[in-house]
Structure formats: C-alpha cells, structure tokens
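Quick check before the chapter quiz. The format below is the same one you will see on the exam, so make sure you can read both the input and the output lines.
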Amino acid sequence: MKCGVIVRAMDAADLGVARGLMAQLGYEITADDLAVRFGAVAGDANHALLVAERGGLLVGLVHVFARPALEKPVEAVIQSLVVDARARGAGIGRALMERAEAWARARGLASVALHTTLTRADARAFYARLGYAEAAEAALLRKTLDTA
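Here is the expected output.
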C-alpha cells in the first residue's frame, strides 16, 4: 500500500466508477459497451486491468498489455491511465504505474510504452518524472470501416 492506496485487479463491480473516470479524460462509453470490452480484456493473460482504492473509493485505473511485434521485442503498453481529478497529485498515478511496470517485469518485458496527447503538458510532465522519455512525434491515423 502506498499513499493510503490499495492497487488490485479490476472486477465487473468497478465498471460504473471506471466509466466515470474515463469520462474525465473525454472517453464517453456506454455501460453496455464497457461491459463487453471488459469481458474481452479481463480474461486475457496478456492484459492487466488494475484499480486504485483510497478510503474505500475507487480513485484510479490502469490498463497495461503485452504487445508483440515483428520489428521489435514484445513490450508492455499502457493503454489507459486515469486518476480521479479530485485525487490527483497524491501518488495514485505513480502507484498504478509502478504496479503496471511490475506486471511487465514479471513477464520478462524490458520496456513500457504509452501514448499521450502532445497538448497534455501535465501528463507529459508526470510521465517524465517517472522516467519516461519521448521516443517519437507521431500522428494517430484512423479509418472507420463499414462493417455491414
């Protein structure tokens, strides 16, 4: 336990609060969609979904996974990290990242990567304090596919 925080595996009972946390970062997800996505990820040994509790309240979450690639060794990727805006600055994000990094080390992974928006100076400064260095400037490109 760090800073009065308990980090544990996420379970389905956490989804309501997790949905609210993700909304703080601008990700509007329906409860049904989140339940489906949780089901797809939670049972996969290449993913870890962890939450932070402080004073009995869920105040943060991290999703880390192992990403294999042809051009480089498998590395851990932080898919998402969010700490409740009212609890930021108390070491909760650091505690979650330390557990995500421990998860990666336990799997023999030598690096952790993540993406953050260039305009989020606070997030970039947070990651720099944890030892993360900017490795590239890139554009995220996406194409919506017709699935009908």
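If your answer matched, good. The mean pLDDT is 95.
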